[in-house]
Design a protein that fits this description.
Blueprint lengths: L1 H18 L7 E7 L2 E9 L2 H6 L2 H20 L12 E8 L4 E8 L2
Antiparallel strand pairs: 1-2, 2-4, 3-4
C-alpha cells in the first residue's frame, strides 16, 4: 500500500514538472565590470500571442518587447555616449517563446 502511495505521488510530481512553466521576471539588468557593461533585457509576449499559443507569434512579440526595453534603457543619459557601440551577443527564448532574453554588451 505504501509503495502504491509513493508511486502515485511520483507520477503527480513528474506531471507537474512537465507542465509547469518557469516564472520569469521582465525588465533590464545591467552588470558593470571593469572593462565592459552587460545588459540583459527580458520581454514577455503579448497576451494575444499567449492566448493564441502560436510559437512564432509569441517569439516575435516577446523579442520586440525585450528589444524595446533594451532600447529604453540605452536612451538613459548615463548611456548616451556608448549606446551606439552596444552589440547584441545572445538571444534566448524561454517557455516556448513566451519570454525573450536579449544579452547585449558594451566593450570599449
Amino acid at each position: 500500500m505504501y509503495k502504491k502511495f509513493l508511486y502515485i505521488n511520483f507520477i503527480i510530481l513528474f506531471n507537474f514538472c512537465l507542465t509547469s512553466k518557469e516564472k520569469v521576471i521582465t525588465g533590464v539588468e545591467v552588470y558593470s565590470q571593469p572593462n565592459r557593461i552587460i545588459f540583459i533585457s527580458t520581454g514577455k509576449a503579448s497576451e494575444n500571442a499567449i492566448k493564441k499559443d502560436i510559437r512564432v507569434i509569441k517569439e516575435t512579440t516577446s523579442k520586440e518587447a525585450a528589444r524595446l526595453l533594451l532600447e529604453n534603457e540605452l536612451n538613459k543619459n548615463q548611456y548616451r555616449t556608448i549606446r551606439d557601440k552596444v552589440k547584441i551577443t545572445y538571444i534566448e527564448f524561454i517557455n516556448d517563446g513566451e519570454y525573450c532574453k536579449i544579452t547585449a554588451e558594451y566593450t570599449p
